[in-house]
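REQUEST FORM: STRUCTURE PREDICTION
Request ID: SP-0412
Submitted by: Lab K.M.
Chain count: 1
Length (residues): 223
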Amino acid sequence: MHRRGTPSGRLPVRRAPLGLDGRRRADHRADRQHQHRRRPGPDDGRQRPSSLQQLDRVTNRNDTTLAQTTEISGSRTVTDTEGWSDTSGVKVSVSTNISTGIPIFVEGKVTVSAEGSFSYTQNGSTARARTVSWRQPVVVPARSVVEATVAVTHANIRVPYTLIGEFVYRSGARYGGTVGGTFAGGNSENVQVSLKEYNLDGTPAAAPVRQPAVTLLKISPAG
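STATUS: Completed
RESULT:
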């Protein structure tokens, strides 16, 4: 089974033939030519509250009578863990690469990222490393302290999925079928830079200066 524009791959699976009693025996192997299709919707995924993972903290102190401009920058590798559990009882190979996006929770809804090949491990988990990068200009007013905190939001979601395709038996026979279950994982979604201005005595500034816009703030696959 193949649909244009839908990635497909080949997964070895185990499915037993029917016996005389209508039940399936457990000693027959087959291959599955499948597609991965995910239809996200507003009510088909569950999300645990997002949390912030702090990546860096920088304090800039200006004891002079003139405002100063500096920049904070850096990168850090974070690891997200995802797993696929099945509810159909069909056994799939231990680890198989499929071309598919990963469900993520963005702006209050579940969507699918376009990240290409991903390792499908049935009833297991896969670690995925990503690099978080940032570059933020900072204005430090005269006789002030500006504290910069860099963090990445992290959310855990559970989303149903379906692998759609056909069973291919050693005899050459083909039968349509599906493997379904639940995708669960943690997703690093967004990088945030928080800037707080204080007086030299540690009290919050009454009128914080307007800070420049971020010039680089992104998450990319770790190379």
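NOTES: The chain has one domain: 43-159+180-221.
Reviewed by: T.R.
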